[in-house]
Amino acid sequence: MRFVLLAILALGIALGLGGWSAFSALQRFEGTQTLVVGAWHADRTAGSPSADPYSKARQARSGDLTLGLGEGVAFQARVDTAGRELRRECSYRLEGIYPPARVATLAAYDFDGRLVPVADGQPDRLVSTNWMRRDDNSALVSVSAQAQPGNWLALSGDGGFILALTFYDTPVSTDSGAAPIPMPYIVRTGCLADG
User: Fold this and answer.
1) Which residues are registered as beta bridge partners of 77?
2) SS3 call for 173
3) Please, are residues 88 and 117 in contact by the beta-carbon 8 Å criterion?
4) In a structure prediction context, what are the per-residue pLDDT tens digits for the chain, which is 195 residues long?
């Protein structure tokens, strides 16, 4: 009887620790093909058959449709260029050059993968065909709860968020990574708590 109880205890511990480690890996492990450019992270192989098992499991669990290799690449940022968590009660400026792409989109998501809700009439996502740009493909984009002139992505509420910058039909999705990829800096310009 003692042997049976010890076997059940050992099995329970093994299953518990195994389940916890798999859950932890799905939450934290970004993948083996993660491309990191400053504060931005992207897994170019997430939608391809060659994606690592953790990326496939994460996509299956979330139910999100991913871009296939060659279709585009989706970058995400959870921190600004200084390494501070992105917060909805703060204002940010994206500045710098963007990679070449037929179309790009910018949106803010909560940690559950839903768009950050904003008031009616405020922009909850931006599409590059409507951005004001300079000749060198750079653009200033404000991300803030307060209305801003120029390119503005609205925020509301408080707490952390994720910025998603997706490029469609871009050489970045199939590039071998030999050339540096230009990505905008995320600069915190102030917070409501700062006054």
Assistant:
1) 163
2) helix
3) no
4) 888 888 888 888 888 877 777 666 555 545 556 778 889 988 765 555 555 555 555 554 544 555 555 577 889 999 999 999 999 999 999 998 888 888 999 999 998 888 998 988 888 899 988 888 888 878 899 999 998 999 999 999 889 999 999 988 777 766 555 557 889 999 999 987 654
Q: How far apart are CA 7 and CA 4, in angstroms?
A: 5
Which residues, other chains included, contact 38 with Cβ-Cβ below 8 Å and sequence gap of 6+? Answer: 81, 183, 185, 186
User: Which stretches of 38-178 are assigned E, i.e. beta strand?
Assistant: 40-43, 72-77, 90-95, 103-109, 125-127, 141-144, 151-154, 162-168
Of 43, 72, 74, 71, nearest in space to 58 by CA: 43
Q: How many helices (H) and strands (E) does the chain have?
A: 2, 10
Residue showing tokens 């404000």: 142
User: What is the distance between the alpha carbons of residues 53 and 4, in angstroms, rounded to a whole number?
Assistant: 34
Q: Rounded to an integer, what distance in angstroms lies between the CA atom of residue 164 and that of residue 141?
A: 13
- Of 185, 130, 133, the C-alpha closest to 163 is 185
Helix axes 2-28, 53-62, angle to 10 degrees: 80
DSSP bridge partners of 166 = 74, 105
